[in-house]
Structure formats: structure tokens, C-alpha cells
């Protein structure tokens, strides 16, 4: 239950906050249109662990990814749930929210080229944050089994993902 539903946040303030977020999204989309949509090859090239991969390796990775279309407001992953996949953002904006002491804290706003869900995948722990689609999103899902296949193919990938996960845990 969110703060508006609990009566902790006046509806007018909630509407004002929502409008401010929408304004920020419009601003982002005008400032960085290339960040809102990528083709799969370019998306993978922007992710650190694929930067130096050959065209054949990128093609192999694309074959393992499953596409998911998330409409605005969809909760893609929920804090506390068991996680067995990593998500790559091909198009759209995802907001990362962490619930702490019954307060929702915005941790990050992610766009095309970013990824999320790696902490639960790597450490076999519950999801540490909720990730919600703010705009229509196209996501690629990499399951744990497919992730293990890629690690064998890209030996440096696991190290780089662990480094990124460590940085995010520190935030």
C-alpha cells in the first residue's frame, strides 16, 4: 500500500509529484532521444560486459534473451520477491524504488542500455528493490540458466557484473 492509499500523502501533493516526474521524463526524452530506444546489437554493445564481444558472440547472446513489453506503471520486479533473471532495457524508462521503514525511496532512474535485477541473480537473494516501468518499455530478460551459458562464453562477464552489483549495493 502506498502513502496516498494510507492517507499519509495528500492527493494534491501526490498529483503534483506525479506531474513533476512526467515533466522530468519529457525533458529526458527530449535531451537524450538516443537513450530511449536502441537496437539489440547496440544495446548489448553499451553494456560493459559485451563491449569487446565479437559480432558472433553478440548474436549468440541475443538468441538467449527473451523480449518483454512492459506498459507504464507495470511492476517488473518487486522488492522481497525471489529473483532468477537479469533485465536489460532496450527502450523506455524504469524507476528503481527501495522500501525502507515503510517509505519508498527512489534509488535510480534507468534508461536504454541500463540493466537491473543482477543482485538477486548473482547472490541468490530476494530482490532488493522494486523496478517499475515509467514509460512503455521493451526489456530483454536473461534467465539464470542462460546467464550461466553466457558466463562460460564470456569469462569476464561475471566479474564485471559482480563489480556493478557491489557498487549498487553500496548506494
From TrEMBL:
<keyword id="KW-0472">Membrane</keyword>
<keyword id="KW-0812">Transmembrane</keyword>
<dbReference type="GO" id="GO:0005221">
    <property type="term" value="F:intracellularly cyclic nucleotide-activated monoatomic cation channel activity"/>
</dbReference>
<keyword id="KW-0407">Ion channel</keyword>
<dbReference type="InterPro" id="IPR018488">
    <property type="entry name" value="cNMP-bd_CS"/>
</dbReference>
<dbReference type="GO" id="GO:0016020">
    <property type="term" value="C:membrane"/>
</dbReference>
<dbReference type="InterPro" id="IPR000595">
    <property type="entry name" value="cNMP-bd_dom"/>
</dbReference>
<keyword id="KW-0406">Ion transport</keyword>
<dbReference type="GO" id="GO:0044877">
    <property type="term" value="F:protein-containing complex binding"/>
</dbReference>
<protein>
    <submittedName>
        <fullName>Cyclic nucleotide-binding protein</fullName>
    </submittedName>
</protein>
<keyword id="KW-1071">Ligand-gated ion channel</keyword>
<feature type="domain" description="Cyclic nucleotide-binding">
    <location>
        <begin position="49"/>
        <end position="168"/>
    </location>
</feature>
<keyword id="KW-0813">Transport</keyword>
<dbReference type="InterPro" id="IPR014710">
    <property type="entry name" value="RmlC-like_jellyroll"/>
</dbReference>
<dbReference type="InterPro" id="IPR050866">
    <property type="entry name" value="CNG_cation_channel"/>
</dbReference>
<keyword id="KW-1133">Transmembrane helix</keyword>
<dbReference type="InterPro" id="IPR018490">
    <property type="entry name" value="cNMP-bd_dom_sf"/>
</dbReference>
<dbReference type="Pfam" id="PF00027">
    <property type="entry name" value="cNMP_binding"/>
</dbReference>
